[in-house]
Amino acid sequence: MVERIGISYANCYLLSGEGGSILIDTCNYKDGPKILERIKDKNVKLILLTHGHFDHVSSAKYLAKRLNVPIAMSEKDVPIIGRGEESALLGPAPIGRVVSFFSKFVLKKSTYSVFEPNVLLEDGQELSEYGVKAHVVELPGHTKGSVGVLTDDRDIIVGDAMFNIFRPTGSRIFEDEETMRQSVQKIKKSGATTIYVGHGKPIKNV
Ligand SMILES: [Zn+2]
């Protein structure tokens, strides 16, 4: 079961199975206590980060400490953790420029605790040891180390590999446009019926 925790402009998700739950992404630093309140009794066994941008990782250290659980992400995004303003990306489309400007503005005002992930995720990695029937799907392009989680119930949580601001699109900002587009096709062909994005409402994949 996927529960959207939309307490800021970036979504995070609680993915629950029979044996436990995984928190996917963590929003901004100030959001940590509110997220904790929502998930503290949900048997969370892992914090999984879809990628290294500040609006997805900033509460990771705070929550990992309080829940006493490991943090997982792709090794390829470890270098952008804590790099602050450098992790804001330029977007070529008008919306991308707005997002980019906004992210730099927020970054100047926000600080977060740098951390080291405990688990490095790879394509196809099963997540059953954390209580859910799902696996990791690499979705590079937005960042090199972007990953999604595809569940056996055919839900997919994709971080910023797709956006749903005004309408469903590929990522509005990206490190590599071609791989970003390939990742969008991978999501659409994944067999998932619902796509859960980092920004905006879920998308029906029909
Ligand atoms: Zn992002």
Label this structure with key terms.
5-stranded mixed sheet; globular; 27% strand; Metallo-beta-lactamase, Chain A; 206 residues; binds zinc ion; 6-stranded mixed sheet; alpha/beta; single chain
Beta-strand content:
25-35%
Question: Which cofactors or ions or other ligands sit in this model?
Answer: zinc ion
Question: What is the residue-mean pLDDT, rounded to a whole number?
Answer: 90
Low-confidence stretches: none
The rough form would be described as: globular
User: What is the end-to-end distance?
Assistant: 20 Å
Q: What's the total number of strands?
A: 13
Query: What is the CATH topology descriptor?
Result: Metallo-beta-lactamase, Chain A
Sheet bearing the most strands, described?
6 strands, mixed
Output the CATH homologous superfamily.
Ribonuclease Z/Hydroxyacylglutathione hydrolase-like
CATH class label: Alpha Beta
